[in-house]
Amino acid sequence: MKLKRVYWNLIMFAAIGVLGTVGGVVGWSAALLLRGAARPATVSARWCALGVAASWSGVALRWAVSGLPGWWLPVPLAVTALAVPLALADLGHRRLPDVLTLPAYPILGAALCVAAVTGPEEGLAVRAMVGGAVFATAHLLVHAVAPNALGAGDVKLSGSLGGVLGATGWPALVVAAFAAAVVTLVLAGSAVLLRARRWREGVPHGPGMLAATCLIAVFPGSGWR
């Protein structure tokens, strides 16, 4: 029994190390992609790499220690890989570049397909599609009413994130929307206190959406049941 535990610990640490290293490469590549886009949104490659590396290591630890299902693992990895560079871009430029928001659909769609095919959850794919449509529609309506409060990039991103949220359960859509609003309010308050000039035209909403979706993807709780 002790020998099996030692082997499992070795596997766990190896998985954390490997995923952390690969995540760093992914984050660095995403920063280069943003820098070389038609409309560049330069972010720190170092912080982007460190952020994705830390996120992927955390996901690996969650899988090894807390029992995150292996069939769901591709989803939080894909979400965090997109979330870090997009959040940095939105915080720095108040933009969610198409070079990442549009590929988010096939990337997250592929991860959700893997979860739907390999996992035991019935209806996951349907919930993902409906959740994406509902989340995108809600954000589109808000954008139509208050475009300064919610940009076009937020609308483009909302559909792919809504797919992840819907896959975990319907309440996740409401929880994520509320949590994203809270994060945006905190950023707005911070901007007032710090007199941040770059956000005079509006506070970025993307970081809140991304943070909420990451937390729900990494800690889906009992949403499937």
Element layout with pairings:
Blueprint: H1 2-35, H2 45-66, H3 74-93, H4 98-101, H5 104-118, H6 124-145, H7 152-168, H8 171-194, H9 206-218
Describe this structure in words.
With about 220 residues, this protein is mostly helical. The chain has one domain (about 1-220). About 75% of the residues lie in helices and about 0% in strands. It has 9 helices and no strands. The protein has helices spanning about 1-35, 45-65, 75-95, 100, 105-120, 125-145, 150-170, 170-195, 205-220. Helix 1 (about 1-35) runs antiparallel to helix 2, helix 3 packs antiparallel against helix 5 and helix 7 runs parallel beside helix 9. The two termini are about 30 Å apart. The mean pLDDT is about 90.
Order of helices and strands: HHHHHHHHH
Number of structurally distinct domains: 1
Helix content: over 70%
Overall SS class: mainly alpha
- Overall strand count: 0
Please count the helical segments.
9
Q: What proportion strand?
A: under 5%
The geometry reads as globular
Q: What's the alpha carbon Rg, rounded to whole Å?
A: 18 Å
Oligomer: single chain
The mean pLDDT is: 90
Q: How many angstroms separate the termini? A: 32 Å
- Report the uncertain regions: none
Biggest sheet details = none
Keywords: Methyltransferase, Transferase
GO molecular function: aspartic-type endopeptidase activity; methyltransferase activity
Family: Belongs to the peptidase A24 family.
GO biological process, one term: signal peptide processing
